[in-house]
Amino acid sequence: VNEGPSRANDQNDVAVRSAVIAVGDELLLGQTVDTNGAWLGARLAELGAPVTYRSVVGDVEDDIRGEVTRARLRTEVTFVCGGLGPTPDDRTREAVAAELGIGLVVDPLLLDALEQRFKSHGFDELPPDNASQAMMPVGGLVLPNDRGTAPGLVFLSDDAFVILLPGPPREMRWVFDRHVEPLLLERLGPRLVPPTHRLIRTTGIAESVLSERIQHTLPEDLGPVGIAFLPRLTGVDIRLTVRSGSTEAVQGWLDRVEEAIAPVVERYRYDSDHGDLVESLNRELRAGSLTVSTAESCTGGLVARRLTEYAGASDVFLGGVVAYSNQSKIDLLGVDSDLLVRDGAVSEPVVRAMALGACERFGSDASIAVTGVAGPGGGTKTKPVGTVWYAARHRGHTASRVRRFPGDRSAVRERSAQAALALLYDLVIGRGGDRSTTE
Ligand code: AMP
Ligand code: MG
Questions:
Q1: Which ligand is closest to the CA of 37, given by its number?
Q2: Going by fewer Cβ within 10 Å, which terminus of the chain is more open, N or C?
Q3: Pocket flag, ligand 1, residue 25 (CB < 6 Å)
Q4: Ligand 1 in contact with 24 (CB < 6 A)?
Q5: pLDDT tens readout for residues 190-214
Q6: How far is CA 298 from CA 45, 322, 348, 410, 436, in A?
Q7: Smallest Cα–Cα separation from 136: which of 175, 84, 192?
Q8: Whose alpha carbon is nearest atom 19 of ligand 1?
């Protein structure tokens, strides 16, 4: 248990730390992204053996050797991914064996399986290069790979626990799930402390503001709870983490911190499995037997796409219009041309007329409308790039807002869609506050 508030999501107090070394020239050249490293990072954290050291090296024996030693100084379990293929550029097996001073021997079972595999593919005999894939470390383990020819290998000694995994992601994941996880549980079981997380999703408040307000409301003693802020374009997730204790104690600590920050987050919070506000919005619309439609300009259909992301959208979503030109706003949504001339396409009267038009044209109970300057061109002194008017209509009332969103064109569009969805969500759940005053 930590002394005092633990405000960072700290990995330093865990019992078992892991390292992941990804091997491959293609990774260094940027031709392949190291997704294995990311995947292993997530899985090992869940298992309670988080990755605290990670690196990428080329197919160079000395580099692999150096990296293995560096990793072992910092961690207990080292994973080396890739470079187990049959070609001469795959050096991982030999490099690790040399560095650890552990010999390689032919495993008769592996050799047999390889020969069978090649016969079944119509070859008479095993190509000589492939024989290297039948080698295993002395005193170690073979982790069979049903999805490819290179098995995983475990180098084991009094002070070494180094696990080699094939590079192709679907093979690596299969070997990990099937063999590595049970092996870690068996060898390290009681020392693995899987973290318990609780995610609190927010949208409509900046990370810095949220973090500052939360620091003010937190109790002095958070016990073992760590807090992390995870910002995205669409909002900020607050992640509470506890790494030890009985289930009841853990839930108790999490409840206590969640209650403490509730007053800060209540206006911005939504609950969803995938972290998508639309899950919550669609759930509320469905519960109220409400239908929704959209009228979009600068978001070009993004709001409609978001609303249709999940199965069952047809229960609530009737349709949408992308009305990009002034004429289409007039023809398709019934926006008064006088408004467009007087106030311009990016204006409060126009966005409200768009929201009304959508409800009327589609016969929906609710609607969302967006019009703005996504950039990079098109900004003016009074309406600079990022200026966006959005509106939500619900049970005959329209709420409208203007924001000046930061970021490039894509970021402005993402943020606009999210803000507009959040406005309707606030109206539907009857949430008060500055974001949802109904006019
Ligand atoms: P290798 O085991 O080095 O022969 O890798 C075979 C293939 O697996 C490579 O060509 C990559 O496409 C893929 N691969 C290897 N390492 C990684 C990695 N760290 N992340 C994602 N893909 C990888
Ligand atoms: Mg390779």
A1: 1
A2: C
A3: no
A4: yes
A5: 899 888 999 999 999 999 999 999 9
A6: 40, 9, 15, 10, 22
A7: 84
A8: 34
Nearest ligand by distance to the CA of 36: 1
CA of 152 to the centre of ligand 2 (A): 14
Q: pTM of the predicted model, to two decimals?
A: 0.76
Q: Which two tokens stand for residue 144?
A: 């069979």
Tokens of 270: 């939504």
Q: Which of 20, 27, 32 to mutate to test the pocket of ligand 1 (most atoms within 8 A of CB)?
A: 32
Q: Are strands 51-57 and 18-23 parallel, antiparallel or unpaired?
A: parallel
DSSP string, 201-260: EE-SS-HHHHHHHHHHHS-S--TT-EEEEEEETTEEEEEEEE-SS-HHHHHHHHHHHHHH
Q: Residue 427: which of 396, 401, 393 has the closest Cα?
A: 393
Instruction: Tell me if 286 sits within 8 A of 222, measured CB to CB.
Output: no
Q: Which residues contact 158 (CB under 8 A, 6 or more apart)?
A: none
Whole-angstrom CA distances from 89 to 54, 92, 95 are 22, 9, 12
How many Å apart are CA 40 and CA 27, to the nearest integer?
Answer: 16
What are phi and psi for residue 349, nearest 5 degrees? -60, -40
Q: Best substitution site from 21, 31, 35, 36 to test ligand 1's pocket, by max atoms within 8 Å of Cβ?
A: 36
Distance 66 CA to ligand 1 centre (A): 20
347, 297 Cβ separation under 8 angstroms: no
pLDDT score, position 260 = 95
At 49-108, the pLDDT tens digits run: 999 999 999 999 999 999 999 999 999 999 999 999 888 889 999 999 999 999 999 999
Give the position, in ligand 1's atom list, of the atom nearest the Cα of 85. Answer: 4
Question: Is 435's pLDDT higher than 80?
Answer: no
Give the mutation target among 81, 89, 90, 93 for probing the ligand 1 site: most ligand atoms within 8 A of CB: 81
Percent of the chain exceeding pLDDT 70 equals 95
**Do 362 and 332 meet the contact criterion of CB atoms below 8 Å apart?**
no
Strand partners, 178: none
Task: Tell me if 276 CB under 6 Å of ligand 1.
Answer: no
